Amino acid sequence: MPTFNGVETPNGGSPDGPDQSKICPPPRRDSRDLPSLMLPSCYPITLKFMEVGYRVKYGNKNKGSNIKRILGHGPTSSDQIQERTILNEITGLASPGEILAILGPSGSGKSTLLNALAGRIQTNGFTGTILTNNKKPTKQIMKRTGFVTQDDLLYPHLTVRETLVFCSLLRLPKSLSKQEKTTVAESVISELGLTKCENTIIGNSFIRGVSGGERKRVSIAHEMLINPSLLILDEPTSGLDATAAYRLVLTLGSLAQKGKTIVTSMHQPSSRVYQMFDSVLVLSEGRCLYFGKGGEAMAYFESVGYSPSFPMNPADFLLDLANESKDEMTVELDGDGKRVRSGGSITKKTTSCGM
Ligand SMILES: Nc1ncnc2c1ncn2[C@@H]1O[C@H](COP(=O)(O)OP(=O)(O)OP(=O)(O)O)[C@@H](O)[C@H]1O
Predict the structure, then answer these.
(1) Cystine design at 115: which of 96, 120, 146, 299 (Cβ 3.0–4.6 Å)?
(2) From the CB of 25, is ligand 1 less than 6 Å away?
């Protein structure tokens, strides 16, 4: 009987986490039921990360030296090897059935954090602890982790269906037949709402293909083929209009409802997208400004003296805070002596995580 990587409990049914049998029924071993086997996330993953830090060394004077010579630039002090802290003691938690959104301005460290959480950073500069179900991530856990990168790499000449069937043939275990792998791809196409465009080519900037939103969905579908329990996405809504972004996050929400743990970075979510986040982690220059429930962020900042002077999208407010936290600002007080946002500036009182 074929085994399917995305469903079976690792280590013969004794996972590193909660008793799975209490969470969802054991899968029926019938290849005709493959799509229904594949869709439930039967292996919940709780992701904890504590004091995650990342420092990089840069400024190798030998690199690009020919170009520098052509430009007439001799060795300068900036050619010396320097160190930079990209992430500074970031702590947080993502639970099954929830969406954790990493928010922050460009360059604040969102992608770096996601890479760290996905185990994609293995250099000396990395510090801190990342646990899945209270243990160091095992190979089995890594197999159940999907990572959707910011820059998707897809073959422009293949259709959506061809892309996913091809990936399915490559990524799914040899124990599944070709027909079963095709069935898995078909069910993912349907789950991600790609049926309408399944015969459209992916395309690129030269060849007209699927829309930006559909392209993002194909990237997510690509990871969904392995039925991940933990899905990490780097800016899945970048380049999408507000409605397409909302629809995509709705899809993420429905995946979360099936028991998956979703961690996603997002640049500028609309207020209705923000409302779909269970937790948010706000980064500013690699430091955590806030980690906690999305719905409690505004109250938290108000309690520590920061509030917008007019009703606004919480995500915009948090991004303003993150952007302005690095600048020197003047404290402005309203009639009650509260610090207020005024003329686009918000004063910042704390950099600790509001957990
Ligand atoms: N290996 C590296 N060497 C030097 N600097 C790096 C390295 N990796 C990341 N950085 C820097 O760290 C900062 C954070 O980068 P990161 O890509 O994580 O930001 P981001 O929040 O995802 O940005 P964006 O929203 O624009 O994608 C940036 O200033 C980037 O230039």
Answers:
(1) 120
(2) no
